[in-house]
Amino acid sequence: MTLAEAVVDASAVVRGLTTEGEAADLLDQVAVGATVGHAPDLIVAEVSSALALAVRTERRSLEDAQSLFELLAASPIELHSTAPLASAAIALAATSELSAYDSYYAVLAHALEVPLVTADRRLAAAVPGAVLVA
Length: 134
Description:
CATH superfamily: 5'-nuclease
Largest sheet: 5 strands, parallel
CATH topology: Rossmann fold
Mean pLDDT: 95
Order of helices and strands: EHHEHHEHHEHE
Number of strands: 5
Structural class: alpha/beta
CATH class: Alpha Beta
Strand order of the largest sheet: 3-2-1-4-5
Distance between the termini: 12 Å
Shape: globular
């Protein structure tokens, strides 16, 4: 799968950082510039939270989690401020089964007219044109 541009959510990034497969391939494509990656800036907090949980549950060492986060920090994923997306994200979350967090990704994908790439089956099913990665 090669996409010219895509919004990537935290689930796809965490999966891509921690396992092999489609999500990792997508992150590699973003890293080399074959795919332009976008995300709301809340992805930093979401990925940090997932990595911290992996440390607390002893699935990863602190050093490993920090190294994985540095890969995200060095990635050319273009971060978009959540403030301009907030009104539409609130409206979507209030009128759907999506969380406000997930709504930011959906709203950004819609605004940029690019697919949302996620490892979250529920989110992929709720967002038209979303791409589910393993």
